[in-house]
Design a protein that fits this description.
mainly beta, two-stranded antiparallel sheet, about 160 residues, Hepatocyte Growth Factor
Length: about 160
């Protein structure tokens, strides 16, 4: 996890997945690490507020803040965290935050609201975002990656 003095600004309210108090920044960070959906957290030491977000820089932003008591942390993701276990037997991804065991295929797959792009599991995209494959859009929000008249994927739409 990487930290700095900024605030996350998710694009959509659905991206806030946890908003509780925590005794320390370390415990807030640990809570994020234990939640496979968490990509960004913020912690304010004066209020002890810990917020976890299912957001990253593709579907949210980090904004500067004057507060010296607030800090943001983010999960650092790389293809090496995914490639060795994707589509492998479930024993390869037990107790792993980056991939989950699919009960239908009995293989390691991307967790909810993310998709396999050939090298890792980025978060699925929201409405009007540019997309390049069928499963890149938030299906829980009834979005699909629409095919244009040339047969190429273009945009996440309803």
């Amino acid at each position: 996890m990487k930290t700095n003095h900024h605030l996350p600004q998710p694009q959509y309210g659905v991206q806030l997945i946890f908003n509780e108090t925590a005794r320390s920044r370390l415990l807030c960070s640990a809570t994020c690490s234990q939640n496979p959906s968490c990509r960004i957290f913020d912690y304010d030491s004066s209020s002890r507020r810990c917020r976890l977000f299912e957001a990253d820089l593709t579907n949210g932003a980090i904004i500067a803040t004057a507060s010296q008591t607030s800090i943001v942390g983010s999960a650092i993701l790389s293809a090496s965290l995914y490639a060795s276990m994707y589509n492998q037997s479930c024993s390869a991804c037990q107790e792993n935050r980056y991939q989950t065991c699919s009960s239908t295929t009995n293989t390691c797959q991307c967790p909810g609201n993310s998709y396999w792009n050939g090298s890792m599991c980025p978060l699925q995209l929201f409405e009007n975002a540019n997309c390049s494959q069928i499963d890149a859009c938030r299906s829980d929000l009834n979005l699909g990656c629409i095919i244009n008249s040339y047969g190429g994927f273009t945009q996440c739409l309803r």
